[in-house]
């Protein structure tokens, strides 16, 4: 964890400087670069009605899956994805959520044995949430406008194929 207040913003800015990203980029390019660095694909998956969360990061041994609310504006979808990337960059783990159970409830077709961690949020009360939100805001200052997305079915199919499911 980076911290809170002024230290939080400075820590997040330092983390992004260490990534050595281009001055501007789009979300697909950012995901492709982070995929290379992490050694596995990042799949963005728009889903309707995520039930009390806007976004969800599911890390498996082979894939990082970022689910985000389909029924919201493109700028909000982009911010949700950047927020989940913030969790990924900080390597946050859930503290009170059973990852296998949450994944089973939200994505019943994904094999729970493949899941390493799941983060789902509904508010910004914890230090981890503030870190992810500051990172998302800093990233969005350098992010180009959102482009049309692949269909949810294409993204899920790709995620399941990459996980052997």
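Q: What amino acid sequence fits the structure above?
A:
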């Amino acid at each position: 964890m980076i911290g809170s207040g002024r230290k939080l913003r400075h820590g997040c800015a330092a983390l992004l400087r260490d990534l050595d990203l281009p001055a501007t980029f789009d979300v697909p390019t950012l995901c492709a670069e982070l995929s290379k660095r992490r050694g596995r694909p990042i799949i963005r998956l728009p889903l309707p009605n995520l039930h009390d969360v806007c976004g969800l990061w599911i890390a498996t041994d082979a894939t990082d899956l970022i689910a985000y609310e389909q029924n919201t504006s493109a700028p909000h979808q982009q911010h949700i994805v950047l927020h989940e990337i913030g969790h990924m960059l900080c390597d946050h783990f859930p503290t009170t959520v059973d990852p296998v159970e949450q994944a089973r409830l939200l994505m019943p077709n994904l094999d729970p044995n493949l899941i390493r961690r799941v983060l789902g949020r509904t508010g910004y009360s914890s230090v981890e949430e503030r870190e992810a939100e500051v990172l998302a805001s800093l990233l969005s200052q350098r992010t180009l406008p959102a482009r049309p997305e692949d269909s949810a079915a294409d993204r899920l199919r790709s995620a399941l194929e990459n996980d052997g499911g």
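Q: And what stands out in the fold?
A: The chain has six helices and four strands.
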